[in-house]
Amino acid sequence: MSRPLLNRDDEARLRVTMQSLREQIGHFGHMRGGESSAFLLDFGPVVVVEFSRVGNACYLYEKPNAAKVIPDFWAQEPFTIYGLKNRPLAAETITHREGWQTTLAHLLARYGIRPA
User: What is the pTM of this model?
Assistant: First the structure.
């Protein structure tokens, strides 16, 4: 399961496109208080929060802690960058630098999650 969370600038920039693609995009959420948008990626045993801006990390939460950070995956209220970045509850954080995708793939494989 996945859900994009758009900040104001990204939502405004994509507004025209989203009108025609709304059915394909599904239910997007909102980000408040920052310049980054994010994706919520629920893989079952773990939830990954992937931020759009360089310099942000990817946060991996095991299910029990994910429920504390994201109590309602489909919430109408905006999410905040600081609410989604909870290092003490994260099982792992991965900084976006060379090789981060491979690191994330290895972490997900530990939870039995592999590309099809």
Answer: 0.85
Residue 7 to residue 38: CA distance in whole angstroms: 8
Structure confidence at residue 8 (pLDDT) = 86
In a domain, 116, yes or no: no
Q: Which domain holds residue 103?
A: 2-110
Q: Considering the domain boundaries, does residue 115 fall inside one?
A: no
Where are the extended beta strands (E) located within 1-116? 2-6, 29-32, 38-42, 46-51, 57-62, 79-80, 92-95
pLDDT band at 48; cut points 50, 70, 90:
very high
Number of domains in the chain: 1
